[in-house]
C-alpha cells in the first residue's frame, strides 16, 4: 500500500477519536492496512499547517504522552477535555478508545 494511502487511513482514524478519550500509536496502526506505530507517530509530527485533527489524543503504549516539543501543549489540551493523568503521568485505561 502506498504511503499516501496509509497516511489517509491514519488521518481518518485519528479524526474519529472523541474528545476526552485517547488512543495509542499502536492501536491506530492496527486499524490501518499496514502502518506501524512509528509511522503513526511520524504522521502526527508532520501534520500540515491548518489541520484540525485531534493529534493530541494519540499517546504511547504506556498510556503516557511521549516527550517531544509539543508534549506540554498536548497534556494541556487533554486536560482541557477532561482527561486525567495519574501520579505517574499515565492516562486511565478506561479512557482508551476504541
Q: How would you describe this structure to a colleague?
A:
The chain is mostly helical and 98 residues long. It has a single domain (3-95), classed as Winged helix-like DNA-binding domain superfamily/Winged helix DNA-binding domain (Arc Repressor Mutant, subunit A, Orthogonal Bundle). The protein contains four helices and two strands. It has helices at 3-15, 25-30, 37-45, 71-80; strands at residues 23-24, 58-59. The chain has a two-stranded parallel ribbon. The two termini are 24 Å apart. The model has no long low-confidence stretch (mean pLDDT 96).
Can you tag this structure with a few keywords?
98 residues, mainly alpha, Arc Repressor Mutant, subunit A, 4 helices, 4% strand
List the helices and strands and how they pair.
Layout: H1 3-15, E1 23-24, H2 25-30, H3 37-45, E2 58-59, H4 71-80
Parallel strand pairs: 1-2
Would you count the extended β strands for me?
Answer: 2
CATH superfamily: Winged helix-like DNA-binding domain superfamily/Winged helix DNA-binding domain
At the fold tier of CATH, the topology name is Arc Repressor Mutant, subunit A
Termini distance? 24 Å
Low-confidence stretches: none
How can the largest sheet be summarized?
A: 2 strands, parallel
Range of strand content: under 5%
Shape: globular
Give the C-level CATH assignment. Answer: Mainly Alpha
Query: What is the number of domains?
Result: 1
Helix content: 25-40%
**What is the count of helical runs?**
4
> What is the spatial order of strands in the main beta sheet?
1-2
Secondary-structure-based class equals: mainly alpha
Radius of gyration: 13 Å
**H and E order:** HEHHEH
Mean pLDDT: 96
The assigned CATH architecture is: Orthogonal Bundle
